[in-house]
Specification:
14% of the residues lie in helices and 45% in strands. By secondary structure, the protein is mainly beta. The chain has a single domain (10-108), classed as Pleckstrin-homology domain (PH domain)/Phosphotyrosine-binding domain (PTB) (PH-domain like, Roll), CATH 2.30.29.30. An 8-stranded mixed beta sheet has the order 4-3-2-1-7-6-5-8, covered by helices on one side. A hairpin with a 7-residue loop joins strand 1 and strand 2 (25-32). The radius of gyration is 16 Å and the shape is globular.
Length: 122
């Protein structure tokens, strides 16, 4: 049985984790006073726990001219990068800001931009 790192959970919502090579995992994220946690709906033993001290950066996936937040990437010191698509991503980011600071939450740079493809060169 998985044991939570948090003593107090401040925010919980549905999310998908895209960390395995084969598809995604549906589950719930819990944002608490000690860590960010993801628990798979199908298998409770399949979980991700990221303590706040391990988080180096959270990169928000923002679309449609800063009007829609799809999800975010969490970069850690040792475990690499985790990709989550979250139902209430804006509220999740606001809650995480209290624990990791505003300077660690940034916009994710898109690899290509449609606007750049159709710009006329001068």
């Amino acid at each position: 049985m998985a044991i939570s790192l948090n003593q107090k959970v401040l925010f919980s919502t549905k999310a998908n984790s895209f960390n395995s090579g084969l598809g995604n995992k549906h589950g719930n994220i819990l944002i608490g006073n000690q860590a960010f946690e993801f628990y798979n709906d199908r298998n409770p033993e399949d979980f991700i726990q990221i303590p706040w001290k391990e988080v180096t950066k959270v990169r928000a996936q923002i679309y449609f001219g800063n009007r829609y937040i799809r999800g975010f990437f969490i970069d850690t010191k040792d475990a690499g990068t985790f990709n989550f698509v979250v139902k209430d991503a804006g509220k999740a980011l606001k809650t995480m800001r209290d624990f990791i600071g505003n300077e660690k939450i940034v916009k994710n740079k898109a690899p290509i931009s449609l606007k750049k493809l159709f710009d006329k060169k001068k």
